[in-house]
Amino acid sequence: MAAAGQELTPTSYISHHLTNRTISLGDGPFWTLHLDTFVTALVLAVVGFGFLWWIVRGATAGVPNKRQAFVEMLFDFVDDQVKGIFHGNRAFVAPLALTVFVWVLLMNAMDFIPVDIAAKITEHGLGQAYWKPVPTSDVNTTFALALSVFALMIFYNLKVKGIGGWTHELFCTPFGSNILLMPLNFLFNIVEYVSKPLSHSLRLYGNIYAGEIIFMLLWMWAATGLVGSFAGGVLALGWAIFHILIVALQAYIFMMLTIVYMAMAHESH
């Protein structure tokens, strides 16, 4: 989809669908809200966790129905992953892992909605010419999630180890407490801490963003004629099937890294 009077090219088509609907909250790009990302992520959170709350609220001790069985399997799956990595009190970490997994999975799954259908819905229903439907293809989303986990990791480092214990860990691991090695230990740990939110966020963003571009290229091919429609349709179906694995796997990896970081925050060296 291109602007009026503009020739449709792969560049203009992709650029249009990857442009966020923004609202300026102040001076400079830092104070710009991506309205489409925020609203879509919020709606998915309400729908996803509203569904889980509805099932859990009506759960019975007898033979569960299919919906209850599915939710119980999801709870058990996440709790088993937490048990294998985190050996402390799971009262907070297990719900955190469940929240991360479900929310990221739902946001990733928006990639299965064809962009042209999503564009028609937002243009006619919301009156928005630009509306990016996949929150996790926006690096702001993945960084916000990763930085939230990072902040929790720092909080639990301080809560469990205390300021003195965490400071000692920063300066005395992994190479020992020799005063000559303290600067090297500190530099090593700072690099490790900085790399955590970077890798946590960019891995998810890169995979979903790339998958979205591949979908759009296939839709463009399908619009070139009969042969293109057939080839593009077949390849898009194959990519969609493969993308199911990517969507689920990236949500799983993001959840597992969250559990690992929480476990590291509770462990002393």
Task: List the defining traits of the structure above.
2 strands; globular; 269 residues; 74% helix; single chain
What is the spatial order of strands in the main beta sheet?
1-2
Q: Estimate percent helicity.
A: over 70%
What's the average pLDDT? 87
Order of SSEs, N→C?
HEEHHHHHHH
Q: Can you count the helices?
A: 8
What characteristic shape results from the CA principal axes? globular
Instruction: Give the biggest beta sheet.
Output: 2 strands, antiparallel
Computed structural class: mainly alpha
Write the layout of secondary structure elements.
Elements (H helix, E strand, L loop, with lengths): L9 H8 L4 E3 L7 E3 H23 L8 H20 L4 H20 L5 H12 L12 H34 L9 H41 L3 H41 L3
Antiparallel strand pairs: 1-2
Helix pairs in contact: 2-4, 3-4, 4-8, 6-7, 6-8, 7-8
3D architecture notes:
- The protein has one domain.
- It is mostly helical and 269 residues long.
- The mean pLDDT is 87.
- The protein has a two-stranded antiparallel ribbon with strand order 1-2.
- α2 packs across α4.
- It is built from 8 helices and 2 strands, in the order αββααααααα.
